[in-house]
Each structure stands twice: as structure tokens, then as C-alpha cells.
Amino acid sequence: MRYGMVIDLKRCVGCNACTVICKAENGTPPGILWARVLKLESGDYPARRVSLPVLCMHCQDPPCQKACPTGATVKRPDGIVYVDTAKCVGCRYCMMTCPFQARYFNDAVRGYFPGQGLTPYEVLKYQDHPAGVVTKCHFCKHRVDQGLQPACVANCMAKARYFGDLDDSNSEVSQIIRTRRGYQLHADLGTDPSVYYLPP
Amino acid sequence: MLDRPFDYIGQDLRSTFRPQREWAQRRGLLLIAAFFFSGIGAGGWLFSLFLSWPTGLVWSLATVVVASGAAHLAFLGRPERSWRVLLRPQTSWISRGVLGIVFFAVSGVLYLLTGAPAWADAGPGGRLLLTLSAFGAVWLLVYKGFVFAYAKGIPFWNTAMLPALFFVTGLRGGSALVLLLAVVAPEGPDLYPLEIAKLWVAVSFGALLAFYLWATSESCVAARRSVRELLGGRVSVAFYLGVLAVGLLLPLAWGAVGLFRAQPEWAWAVVSFSSLIGDFYATYAVSKAGVYRPLAGDFRVAPKTSQR
Amino acid sequence: MSPKAPSPNEASIQEDRWIPSACGICYNLCGIRVRRINGTVVKIEGDPNNPAGMGRICPKGAGGGIPLVYDPNRLNVPLKRTNHKKGFDEDPGWVEISWDEALDLVTEKLQQVRREDPRKLVYSQNLMRGTAPRLLPMFAAAFGTPNSIISNGHHCGNAEHRLAGLVHGVDTSQVDFDLCNYLIVFGSGIGASAYYAYSSLTQKMADARMRGMKLVAVDPLLSPIAEKADEWLPIRPGTDGALAMAMLHVLLNEDGLYDAEYLRGGTNSTYLVGRQGRFVRDQATGKPLVWDTPSGSARPFDEVEPKDAALTGEFTVGATAVRPAFVLLQERAKEFPPERAAEITSIPASTIRRVAREFGQAARIGSTITLEGKALPYRPVATMFFKGAHGHNNAWVSSMAMKWLNLVLGAVDVPGGLLGTNPVCLGYPQTGLPHWVPQLGPDGLVMASAWHAHSARGPEMTQPWPQREPKAPERLDLLDLFAAGSGGHISVLLTASDEAQRFGIPYKAEVLINEGSNLVMSLGNTKVVAEALKKLYVINLNLFLDETAHFADVVLPMASYLEQLTPIIGWHLQHTFPAGQGSWAEYIQQPVVPLAGQRRDPSEVLIELAQRLQILPGLNAAMNHVFLLREPYQLGLEEKYAWPDICDRVFKNFYGPEHGLEWFSEHGVLSWPKKLEEVYARPFLKYRVPVYLEWFPDLGRKTQALLDKLGVKDIPTAGYEGLPGWKPCGALEAKNASHDLQAIYYRVAWHQFSSTFENPWLGEVSSVDHWADCITINRATAERKGIKDGDRIWVESVRGDRVRGRAKLSNGVHPEVVAIANNGGHWSKHMPLARGKGVFFEALLPLDWENTDPVVTVLDCDAAVRIYKAKDQETGGRGWE
Q1: Which of B249, C13, C487, C775 is deepest in the core (most CB within 10 A)?
Q2: Chain B positions in Cβ-Cβ contact with residue A92 (cut-off 8 Å)
Q3: Whether residue C571 has pLDDT greater than 90
Q4: Mean pLDDT of chain C
Q5: Would you list the domain boundaries of chain C?
Q6: Which domain holds residue A51?
Q7: Nearest chain B Cα distance for residue A45, angstroms
Q8: Is the pLDDT of residue C139 over 70?
Q9: Is residue C233 within 8 angstroms of chain B, CB to CB?
Q10: CB < 8 Å from A in window 183-222 of B
Q11: CATH number, domain at A111?
Q12: Cβ of A186 and B22 within 8 Å?
């Protein structure tokens, strides 16, 4: 069992619904974007542009996990890599070792309305976001454990995201990676990401 | 002051070469300080051993345990859990480093308790402790280089040259620390061998630094960007003023003059102090110049019909 | 050390519910479900049971609601202005008052104007909170005023709405993404960043592209749709009509690629045109004549087999030389050979020819497809356009050109083509409601059955065909005079400069009821709008103390869409609901959290006001009319009903006694499958569509005569044309050697005009985007002007209005264009998160007659500008002058 995601860059319209639905689902504090979209422009006028949604790649050989001095970064048997916020000391070494800029340090409890306290939503959601620790995408493990897809997958308007078992060669994700020549970002680093991309 | 650089997170996230800030700015400065203190303390320990100088040993040990330890703790997001960082020496260079600090501190303190400042005066137990503490000090000089070198996210650091570079800066910082202590202490050891050693280390540091910058700038775009940040970007003031002018040229020039004509003691104090500043800035500049590996580094933009 | 967050405690969860509702961030009303834990909203996602959104929701919908509900900067108490001087720099001197006092104040003012002349009341509402029927227009009808300001004014689809009414018999149009193979989009973000049914069409568009549909995007900017397009055609803004005309020329005159069979039987192409562009008509019946080829004579159009009617040629009827209308279209197209269009549009002639040819060939003229056992015409191509292309004062002729590309290929309301947004609705099977079918009108042309029918805006707005006669104006939006218009900014023009008198209107606007629209930021030139607001007593029902509230006299705190009750029935199905195959749905927008502070539901407030003003019978009658209430659900005129009771009646009236408010509150949505004849109307209905709007030149002459009578000289009526065409828009004409660029406006997927900028989640998305908060400039152009990436610059219009922002260079924008996303740059200090974010585009737009298309009353939405670096000390302030 190895959970993985496939992002179809041909389908993606770069709308950032993933960025926002992730925020709504996980209640991440300001400046912390577990999911986001990069816009890459190339060529002279008239140029081309590609939207590249990124998140934690859930590497199967995660350098962040090796770097973590406390064991706070955990890889589950199903391949999901997450941070146990009760163990993290906030040394941020994992942020330096992650090749995908997927990690964020939540240094203080901070709401989206500066100087105006926390909203009821934030009060509730920040239970999962203690200060002084590093956070990142965990493939919505709370949803996955209930048999749901991660929020960004379930909500993607262009249906550009697929989620499933990479170990099962008959799964939708495995098949689509084969047929559409899916690839990993920075595959040369040998971290074996569980997020694949389909060419635009 | 030490809050996260939250205001420009948007700008950072959208830039191709996103700067690393957590280990260089605001609260991150504490980590630079921690690295700096552990390096000069360990180096100072080694030189003090070499000179058999108890005052130097005490102060060097204190620099590691008190200054570096406090800075480390203050840097952490959750200092109350700091004991946890000892748990993963199998894989984590941070664990290995902190274990090294503990090991060094314990063996160092025990050695000092034997009351024997020099190898010759020590008994077998003392000699063992002394050997162990020396190993610990060398480990401290080496490990932070490995910490950086393992960082796959930051190509500028992700090179085997950094352990060597940081080893040398630590040695140089240590010699400077001892030299400074020797000047201010009421009775100090003979400075001449130290002056020579320090000069030699400074020359090696300069050469290593040049080689490091040249080699990394050839390695990949992100590392080249970091070199550009050092030489002409965000970090250039710290680099030219802190690392080169104050940290390298001044001590080198003065040191060279000192080879031919004896200098007053206060001059050595100035040179030592400027070396220490240079040492701090070396770690700071290398750290701050780090930019993350671009996410789209190997991104394939397939050719597509546009305006055929 | 930072404070520790409370530790999680799952045992403390007493309530965890998903509540079905409708999004209210934009006009599209996508179905949502809202998760509430212990009374706190924690998640909004698409409702999988609702075909509006199909279980997925755009970033605005996903993130718009939670920060909106909990924004501490929301209004919570009624406020009264104490400084009666109004101006951008005047402090209104707000004091808190009770609801009673506020309603007393408002009632007194309204009673006073109603005694004098009820038409002195103008209303405006934020259409962004959905196209569901809302009470304010009904309140206005009861009050006795026809006067409104359409708050999204020039962002509305004036020309498209009228043409969709004439061609599809409905308000808007969408692409049949299930079957379309070749789509050309002019200036719209359909299925990519905006447009109707956004959450649904994005799914369908992506599926279509994966299926192999070719997408060509005509856009000055490498917008999201251009990014996804197989081919991006960067065009000079305001010239889309010229491109479409050249493509028509290629199809009609060079390649002969057109659907003659459809044009003969499904349009008025064969109607014979005689003198002065008028149809030759049968003397007895008045029906237009066509040339019957077998008999060699002219006969009424409905007496000739379509295959026998001449499409081309020249004939004589009596002593009159006549030609089929189609020939006029061909000749008009000849005025735009691709070489000429290339100069106008900056798109190479060879590209124009190739794309037109590909498009024509992809239409598979003559082919059929079998669906549900029925063989239907199959034309898998479509062109569609929206604001970017028709937001110009050449909107009328240009829009025809873009729409006509579908017409000549027969790709209208058939599988694969451009579909009207649900032209036929046969109703929920158990009740047969709602129900509308386009009817056969005069001259055999389609008569929209329910065009804007559920609005209470009065009969003036109800039919594009038959065309109503223009008359001397009595309304401030002049829609009685400009009989093909759709409202917008004209009421503001008339109020700002006391122009009402010039048009012979015997009264002036005195009071404005504004429900949540930020007029100052969304109607073109801010200074003009402000002048109008200074002359009005403004009653503002609002969520925030925004830039428009700054000019208000009384501000009332309102419920947001997550705090109020609205039945989603009727009109939205023709306007914003997904077209094409699928299901119908009628649903509910309901409160998911109790009202905080002293906020109230606007519907409740208006009912209360109506009672105080003693116009409740009128309001009840208007609701009976708009909601089509029949016995036993009809409202008694004298009685005061609670709003939930009215909603209950509305639901039961449409869907039977078992489907009342309670049912909808629990289930959210009532959905049933569409029938084939509802989706593809044309093969099932015997009506024709005009390719030649014979009556339009005449309409222009009549309008001109009325203007002459009034002595109004500065409004040209030459644009009342019956055939497609192109002329330069105001910005193109104003361009000169120094003002050599055009500023355009575009939309990002995560902002809704100016209304979402206070939202910190959406603002954060902008902050990580390269362009969204900046002014996008072509790299080469910027370098020529010495502007570097990140420089702070001014964009200054010909009239000296200017806005400030940060330059972002790009190779993805036309060299003559600066592009600004949405309407940012708020300056109200009561919206601290919106303040200073983005760039305030609207300030650049001239708001005047010169830049207004009087045919469909739309404003030119681009401006001729120059750009230059801002001085270092130029910071702060409002960011515009």
C-alpha cells in the first residue's frame, strides 16, 4: 500500500481552488500554504504559461524524516508522511532538507485578522496547529482514513488530481502514470516522491 | 523582532529562487549564533589543550555549553522538548551534533575536574578524558558542516566542501578566541605559535572559501544564485564587509605584518576580535545565501502550437 | 514564548452537521454544503447532489465564506452619518443607533420622497450575491419606482444578453462541452477563470479538452484560458469584432463554408430585402417574402419549403430590386478581408484564414448525431464571447459578429454547438413547474419566453423580440429611450451631472437604497460615481463599511449569504445554471450560523420597511407576480408574512406541498433529469433566428428622432445596425503618441470583482501569484519605457485619471496592453485587509456618453493610457487620483 497523487497539468487551470480548499479543510495559519500553485512562464512573446500545483510530495525516501532529530516526522506504512506536532521541537532542519519547499514553521499562534484576535474558526482549527513546530501537507490523512480523498483532490474543478494506491498496478493512478507518462519532480534526487505529474 | 518573516512570505513563495530565512533571519540568527559559539568553543578547546592553558579550556568549554547551548535552546520552537533531539542519531545530523555537544561537555567538564591542565601532568584517567574531549571538539567542528551538507533543499549547501570549510572556520575562530583570551587574561601562554597557526588557518580558510564559491557556482542554477546573493545580492554586504574585510583581510594583513615586526598585545586583541566577527559572518553569510531548490527545476514545458 | 493553542478534545464535539445551501460569493449560486461543528462553520465544499457545481467549488466559494462570516470588521450595528458633507476626505462622523431609530429615519425619508414622486427613489443591489430573485426590486416596484443602478454595471453582459435573447430565446449562452470539438473564445474565462456556471463548466471544459476539443483563445492576455488553449491569439483590445468579421468573410465569401440548409430554414437569411434595408412584405399578411426558386416568384416565408428559398441572388419584386438578407451579410463581411483585420487586430491574416477554415470544417455541416434514438443536427463547434470582447462601446456590432460565426454554421442550440442557457424548461415532473418554452413571434422569429422574466424590473425589460418602441424617457436608466439597452451606469450619469432635465425627465433622484453594492469601486470613474452619491440620501444595507458606505447617510448591518434565507428558483436556470445535458436543480440558500451582533436578513428588513411605508400590499403583489404564486400559496395583500413563511409558500407553489421550506432546509436541493428537447431546443421547435435585424436601423432612427426632440446632440445612434460589423472603441480612438497603451481588466479565479478583497485567504492567494496584485506589462514594452520588474508605476488615462501599482513584466501580454486583475486597491480604513491590495482599475475608465454604446448601454471597459515610474515619495494615499 502506497498512497500517491497524480496531478494532470493538462487539465489544471491554475485556479487555486486546491490552495483554498486545503486552507478550509486544514485551517492552516497565515503564510502557511500546504497546497499552492506556481505559474511558470517561458519563451518570448507570445509566451507559454504552465500552472504547477505543488504540495508535499510524500517521498518514500524522505530526507526530512532522516533529518528530523526527534522522530516527529513519520512515514506511515501506507506511505503518508506527516509531522507529529507533539514531538517536533521546531529546529526547522527538515525545511532545509526538503527539496520541495513543502514545509512551514508555525512560530506563533497568529490569526488572519491581525490585532483582532482569533475567529471561532481559528480557535477550533488551531488545535491542530500548535505554535513552535513545523507543519506540512499530510495528504488529508484524517479524510483518507475515513475512505475519502484529500480535499484538494475531491474539490479540483478541472478534475486534475487523482489519488490512489501506487503499489497496485491496476489502480487508476498507476494506470494513468503509465499511459500518460507521469513523472516525479526532482526524480534525480532519489527521494522517490509519491506525487506524479502528467505533462501539460 | 524574532517573529517569522511573515510579511514577505508571498514574495518568497512566488520567486523562482526562494530564499531560506528560518536559519538566517530573525529567530534564525540564534541558530547562527549557536553554530558560531560551538565552533569557536571547540576550536578554542583544541588550541588551549595544545597550549596547556587552563583558562582557555574553561572559557572554551563555557562558550560551547553556556553560549551555544542557550542559543540553541532559544532558537527552538519548543525548547521544553529539547531532550527529544537526542533520539535520532541513526539518521539525523542534528541529533549527532547535539549528542556531540553533550559528549564534549561531559568529557570536558570531567577532565577539568581532574585539575590537570596538560597531557604531561595528567594521569591515565585524565588522559583518556582529554582524548575523548578532543575527539568531541573535533566532532563539533565537523558536524555543522555535515548538517548543512545534508540539506537537499538548499543546493548551495548540499556539498561535501562545507564540512571542510566549517572545520577550518571553527579552528580559526578557536585560535582567535584563545588569542583574545590570552590578551585579556592576566597571565597567558606564549602567543607566537598561536599567531602562526591562526595566520595559516586564515589563509586556508580564504583558499577554501574561494574554491567553494567557484565549485558551487558551477554545480547548478540554484547554487549559482546563492553565490550571486553573496557576491552581489542580498548577502553581499555581510560577505564583503563581515567575511572578507573584517574577517579575513584585516587579520591576514595584520598577521603578515606581525610576522616581521612584533605587534602590541592590543593589536592581537583587535585582530582576534575581527577574526571572530568574520567567523560569525562566514556561517551567517553561507546560511543566508541559501536559496531553495526551484520546484520547477526539471520542469518540462512541452512545445505547443502557439502562433504557428 | 508564543501562547500554546488549546489542545484538541474530540469528546467536546456536541454537534457536527453538513448543511446544504448555495454559495453567494458570485452570481453563480453553486450548490454547497457547509460543515458546522458546535456552531462554528469549519468547511464549505461543493454539494455533490447539486448539478450547479457538481460537488466541486471554485476558490471563491471554497474560501469566501468562512472568513466572511467571522471577519471582525463586519458591520454589526446600524450607523448614522452626522457630518452631512460628503467627500472622499470627509469623515462621515458615524454614530451607532438602534434599529428602531434607523428604520424611523429611513421611513421618514422614504415617505417624504414617495409623497413627492416615488421615482425619486433609486435602488441598487449587489448582483454578486446571486441571481436568485431578491426582494429589493419587488420592494421598488411596490414603492413605485423603476429606477435602478445595476451594480456590476459595465461588467454585465448587456450585448450578450440581448443577442442571446434574440438567438437562443434566453439570457445567456454556454458551450455544449459534452460534444463540442472546436471552440473559439473571445475575451472570456469560461471554464477557466470566470463566467457563468463556473464550477460546473470548468469540469466540463477540462473533460472536453481531454476528449480532444481544440481550444482557441482570443485574448490580449495570456489568461488562464489562453494558458490552456491549443492556440492563443493575442489581440489588440476592442478589435475582436473585426477578427470575427474577417472569419465570417472567409467562411461566407472565400470558402463558402456555411450551413445553407439551416440558414434557409432556421433563420431569416432568405427574407428579401428591398429599399432602405426593409423586408419586402406580403401585402395581405405583412409577412416577409422569400424567393421561391421553383416558381420564380416571391412568396411569404412560411409558404415556401426552406430548400426552395433562395439564399443568394438578385431578384425583382414589383418594381423593387430585392436580395435575400444573407447577401447583405455576405457584403458586410466583404468589408473585412483578413488583410484589413490583421492591421486592426494585430493577428496575421494567414492565421485568421487558417483558424476560420479549421473552424468551418470542424462544424461538419450536414452531419447528424443520434441521441436517445433521435437524429439531431450535429455541429461540434462554437464561438463564445464575454466581457473582454464585448465590454466596449462597439459592443452591439462586434457581439453580433462573434455570435454570427455560430449562426452561419448552424451551430446554435444543437448538439456540439453554442447552447442557450436552458431555453426550454418543462418543469419538475410532478408539478410541471417552472415552465418556459420560447414562442414563435412575428416574422417567424423566436420570442424568448422568460427573458429576465423573473425580475421585477418592469415590462421594458421583458422581450428582445418583438422589439418595443422607444419613447420619451421617464426612467433614469433611459431604458425607455434606449429600447435595446440593459441598464448599468446611466442612472449614475444622469444623477451626477443633473442630466435628468436634459432628457426631459420631470424629477431627480433623491434617495438611494443600496443593498451591498460597492458602486464607488465598480461603475467606472470613481469621481463621477461619487458626485452622484453626494446628491443622494443613501440608505446602505451592507456587510462592511466600504468605500460606498463612506457616502451613505444610514448604514444597516446585513446578513451574509451564510446567514440568510433565499429560495433559489427560476431565473438563475436561464442565467447562471449549467446548460447542456444533465439535471435541473432548484434549491435553497439558508442560514448556517445565527446572526451575530444586530445583523439582519435583508428580506426581513425590506418587509418591515414596506409595512412602515404602508406599501405591503404592493410588495405582496410583486412577490405573487415574481414568484408566480397561485392559490393556495398566494399572499394575501394586506397581511404581513414572515420571510420564512413566504419562502415556504414559494417552494410549495413550485414543487408541491411536500416540498416546503422544511424539506428544502433538510435536503437542500430538488433535482430531476433534463429532457433532450430541453437541452437542444432548435431541432424540436419551429422558430427562426435573425441573421439580419431588419428593425434595428429603424429603431435607431426613432431613437434619434426622440433625441432630436429633446435637443440632445451628443449621443450618436449610428450604432443601431442590423448586421454585424466593427468600429473602433473609445480607447482605440483615444490612443495617441503619448498614450500608446490600452489598460484592460481581467479576472483571476479567486476574486470576485472588488467584493472579496477583504478576505485574507483569497488575498493570500493573490500575494503568492506573480501578477494578481500587480500591473502586468509586456516585457519589451516596459524595457522600452525604462520600467523594470517591481517598479512602482502610474498608469494614467488620457483624461489624467491615474492609478498606482507595481509593475510585473511578462511575455504573456500584448505589447500595447497593461493588464490589471479585478478591482483591487480598496481604501476604506474599515476594511483593513482589503486596503491597498491590488490595483484600482476602475478609476481609469471614463464614465461618459462618449464611451457608452447607446444601443445596449454598455461602457467601454478599457482605456488609453500612458505609464511612468512613480516617485519614491509617492506612497500611501488612495493609490489613485
Answers
A1: C775
A2: 22-23, 28, 77
A3: no
A4: 93
A5: 79-148+451-557, 173-420, 730-869
A6: 3-198
A7: 10
A8: yes
A9: yes
A10: none
A11: 3.30.70.20
A12: no
Residue B124 contacts by C-beta under 8 Å, 6 or more apart in sequence?
A: none
Domain count of the fold of chain A = 1
Which of C23, C199, C765 to mutate to probe the A interface, most A CBs <10 Å? C765
Contact C764 B10 (CB under 8 A): yes
Residue range C173-420 in CATH 3.40.50.720: no
Chain A stretch 19-78, residues whose beta carbon is closer than 8 A to a beta carbon of chain C? 19-21, 23-25, 27, 30-31, 33, 36, 39, 41, 43-51
Q: How many CB pairs lie under 8 A apart between chains A and C?
A: 193
Rounded CA-CA distance A165/A196 in Å is 12
Mean pLDDT, range C488-508, rounded to an integer = 89
Written as nine digits, the cell of C563 is 446567514
Residues B149-203 have pLDDT tens digits of 999 999 999 999 999 999 998 998 998 999 899 888 877 777 777 778 878 888 8
CA torsion sign for C421, C426, C432, C437 is positive
Residue B220 has phi, psi (to 5 degrees) of: -165, 170
Tell me the fold of C79-148+451-557: Rossmann fold (3.40.50)
Range of the domain at B141: 19-289
Distances, alpha carbon C563 to alpha carbons B1, B26, C24, C399, in Å: 40, 42, 11, 39
pLDDT tens, residue by residue, C771-803: 999 999 999 999 999 999 999 999 999 999 999
**C-alpha–C-alpha distance, residues A183 and C821, integer Å:** 33
Whether the model clears a pTM of 0.90, i.e. scores above it, the answer is yes
CATH number of the domain at C730-869, please? 2.40.40.20
Comparing alpha-carbon positions, the chain C residue that sits nearest to B3 is C2
Average pLDDT of span C463-491: 89
Cβ-count burial of B237 within 10 angstroms (0-12 exposed, 13-18 middle, 19+ buried)? exposed
**Higher model confidence: residue B2 or residue C247?**
C247
State the smallest CA–CA distance between residue C291 and chain B in angstroms: 44
Mean pLDDT of C193-221: 97
Contact flag A126-C5 (C-beta cutoff 8 Å) = yes
- At A156, is the secondary structure helix, strand, or coil? coil
Cβ of A155 and C38 within 8 Å?
A: no
Q: What integer pLDDT is reported at residue C130 of this predicted model?
A: 65
Where does A25-145 show beta strands of DSSP type E?
A: 36-42, 48-54, 73-75, 81-83, 104-106, 133-135
How far is residue C192's CA from residue C674's CA, in Å, rounded to a whole number? 25
Q: What is the CATH number of the domain that holds B161?
A: 1.20.1630.10
C47 touches chain A (CB under 8 A): no
Low-confidence residues of chain A: pLDDT under 70: none
Residue C358 forms contact with B (CB below 8 Å): no
Chain A / chain B CB contacts < 8 angstroms: 154
pLDDT of C6 higher than 70? no
Return the partners of chain B (3 or more C-beta pairs < 8 Å): A, C
